[in-house]
């Protein structure tokens, strides 16, 4: 039975936090005192990864910004011998730049008149009972009810209140409010008059306008946190890493104010977000999965099996879905190379490739948000419960929140690696293989940390009393947190450098290890029975491992923890670099030449894991 083609469109209807290490909350907070002894001997992580690194920025709360504004006002008052109101007016007109105010003051004799600061005249009255006419309502008022700016134009308090109120409610233009005289008087209405005439709510609004103007005036190094409802600002000091975090752990890129997106640059992030939100991908779908009616060119989607298509009225054209020929005389068995078919296939491949990366980008974003919820649950309920059960202080359990913060950060990085992969040229095959290997390894490391923080914690939350295994769990989770952080930092650096080390090897790149087990196995000597291809994988694994971790590390075969070369046994599970074939003792130190258990010398048949 003939099937009508479905019309595609018819179916869719306190003080500034100068201590950079303690400024706000960070995803990489320091270790607790209970963890320090463990980490001091953590051979897998360098000291710089354990100690909190100085930040390149300072988080500013609203009180912090007010204090900075007051400090600037005091500095101007001290140098120029002016009132606070006049100092504020000068700073507003010069974008809160103290140096610029001082330079303009001494270089330009007319600076006071330009900003509206005149010598306030004295209103004379022969008797205290004399009345003065208001220039707005034209009514006569006693002098005590008359207010003037520095120009001396008299208006009654009621008219002034109305004028000030309207100006504040109209927006931040009230910061440069002038006298209402119809001659376009330039006399400034300063903060002293605002405080005297405005209501409490209006004064608060005016103060917020001042804070906003301060941040805007210092926009070269200060920006608001873009998170909805957040009132923190970031004062960026220096550095190449633009990832910053406010007091409430809202992480974003200071340069473009988008979500933190390492290892991707801001320009590529903009392209990726535009692609995700634009209608261009919808048109790609139309091109890939629909065909135009040969007569009216309206897109038609095939929703059943028959190839006999009938376009909807008023067109009504009947055609073959395969060759788009007229149904009455089409010949599908004749070969004719069609440009439209090639375009359609290319569009389909393009859409499938985009979908692959977008789905994984979106899934990691979802996982990141879930990890944020889990972090909040740990902070609000689990820490208190665990402290009671294990007889610990909540501060000593910071390693748990550190782990979850690291999970959130790693999910964010992993998410953006998929956008990175989308824009990595297909023709750079060696870089793509290395990138996919590093990405797969990162996923394995993160899953191991996530499993430990989530699943292995559960027994300690449900137990009735103190558990003797909790300290081991703490050491393991702290170690995994440090290892995962170290790996992701090295990977991000490699990706930001464009995987430039790929070109340093003159040896053709064989196939790369596909998972973490083969990655770490590739660092170990193979038995002679192994085939040559596996030896090549080991060599390539060593080269890649050198790019990321350096050459002074070895991996434990049991837990894959990365130890430094001087470590005799694994710092997480205690496994040694080699095991004895005679007694199967697996914790022989790296430098031992005989088994510590049975004293049998190490020979070529024994497994080496260094």
TrEMBL record:
Keyword Repeat applies: yes
The annotated region (Disordered) lies at 1-39, 500-524
Q: Which reaction is recorded as catalysed by this protein? A: [E2 ubiquitin-conjugating enzyme]-S-ubiquitinyl-L-cysteine + [acceptor protein]-L-lysine = [E2 ubiquitin-conjugating enzyme]-L-cysteine + [acceptor protein]-N(6)-ubiquitinyl-L-lysine
Q: In which pathway does it act?
A: Protein modification; protein ubiquitination
Residue ranges annotated as compositionally biased, kind Low complexity, are 504-516
Keywords in alphabetical order: Metal-binding, Repeat, Transferase, Ubl conjugation pathway, Zinc, Zinc-finger
Q: Is Transferase among the key words of this record?
A: yes
Q: Which residues form the RING-type domain?
A: 130-336, 134-180
Question: Tell me, what does this protein do in biology?
Answer: Might act as an E3 ubiquitin-protein ligase, or as part of E3 complex, which accepts ubiquitin from specific E2 ubiquitin-conjugating enzymes and then transfers it to substrates.
**In which family does this protein belong, per the annotation?**
Belongs to the RBR family. Ariadne subfamily.
This protein is called: RanBP-type and C3HC4-type zinc finger-containing protein 1
Organism equals Rubroshorea leprosula
């Amino acid at each position: 039975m003939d099937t009508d083609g479905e019309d595609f469109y018819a179916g869719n209807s306190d003080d500034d936090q100068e201590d950079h290490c303690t400024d706000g909350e960070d995803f990489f907070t320091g270790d607790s005192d209970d963890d320090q002894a463990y980490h001091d001997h953590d051979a897998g992580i360098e000291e710089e990864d354990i100690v909190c690194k100085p930040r390149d920025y300072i988080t500013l709360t609203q009180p912090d910004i007010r204090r900075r504004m007051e400090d600037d006002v005091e500095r101007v008052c001290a140098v120029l011998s002016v009132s606070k109101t006049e100092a504020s007016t000068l700073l507003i007109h010069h974008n809160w730049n103290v140096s610029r105010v001082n330079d303009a003051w001494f270089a330009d004799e007319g600076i006071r008149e330009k900003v509206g600061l005149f010598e306030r005249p004295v209103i004379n009255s022969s008797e205290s009972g004399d009345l003065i006419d208001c220039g707005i309502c034209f009514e006569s008022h006693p002098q005590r009810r008359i207010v003037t700016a520095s120009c001396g134009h008299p208006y009654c308090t009621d008219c002034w209140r109305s004028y000030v109120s309207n100006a504040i409610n109209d927006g931040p233009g009230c910061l440069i409010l002038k006298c209402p005289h119809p001659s376009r008087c330039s006399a400034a209405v300063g903060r002293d008059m605002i405080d005297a005439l405005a209501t409490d709510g209006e004064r608060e609004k005016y103060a917020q306008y001042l804070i906003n103007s301060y941040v805007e005036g210092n926009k070269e190094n200060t920006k608001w946190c873009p998170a909805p409802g957040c009132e923190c600002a970031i004062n960026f000091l220096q550095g190449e890493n633009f990832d910053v975090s406010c007091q409430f752990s809202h992480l974003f890129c200071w340069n473009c104010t988008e979500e933190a997106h390492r290892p991707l640059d801001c320009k590529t992030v903009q392209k990726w977000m535009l692609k995700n939100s634009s209608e261009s991908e919808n048109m790609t779908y139309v091109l890939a999965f629909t065909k135009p009616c040969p007569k009216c060119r309206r897109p038609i989607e095939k929703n059943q099996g028959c190839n006999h298509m009938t376009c909807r009225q008023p067109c009504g054209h009947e055609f073959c879905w395969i060759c788009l020929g007229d149904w009455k005389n089409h010949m599908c068995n004749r070969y004719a190379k069609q440009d439209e078919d090639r375009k359609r296939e290319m569009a389909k491949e393009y859409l499938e490739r985009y979908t692959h990366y977008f789905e994984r980008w979106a899934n990691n974003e979802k996982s990141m948000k879930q990890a944020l919820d889990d972090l909040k649950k740990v902070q609000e309920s689990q820490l208190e419960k665990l402290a009671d059960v294990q007889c610990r202080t909540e501060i000593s359990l910071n390693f748990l929140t550190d782990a979850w913060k690291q999970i959130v950060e790693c999910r964010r990085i992993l998410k953006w690696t998929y956008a990175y992969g989308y824009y990595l040229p297909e023709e750079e095959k060696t870089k793509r293989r290395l990138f996919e290997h590093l990405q797969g390894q990162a996923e394995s490391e993160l899953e191991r940390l996530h499993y430990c923080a989530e699943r292995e914690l559960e027994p300690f939350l449900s137990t009735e009393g103190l558990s003797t295994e909790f300290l081991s769990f703490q050491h393991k989770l702290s170690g995994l947190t440090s290892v995962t952080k170290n790996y992701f930092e090295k990977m991000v650096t490699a990706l930001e450098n464009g995987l430039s080390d790929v070109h340093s090897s003159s040896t053709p790149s064989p196939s790369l290890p596909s998972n973490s087990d083969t990655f770490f196995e590739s660092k170990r000597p193979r038995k002679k029975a192994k085939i040559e291809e596996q030896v090549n994988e080991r060599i390539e694994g060593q080269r890649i491992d050198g790019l990321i971790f350096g050459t002074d590390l070895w991996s434990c075969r049991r837990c894959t923890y990365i130890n430094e070369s001087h470590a005799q046994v694994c710092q997480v599970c205690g496994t040694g670099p080699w095991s004895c074939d005679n007694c199967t003792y697996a914790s022989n130190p790296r430098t031992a030449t005989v088994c510590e258990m049975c004293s049998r010398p190490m020979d070529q048949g024994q497994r080496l894991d260094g």
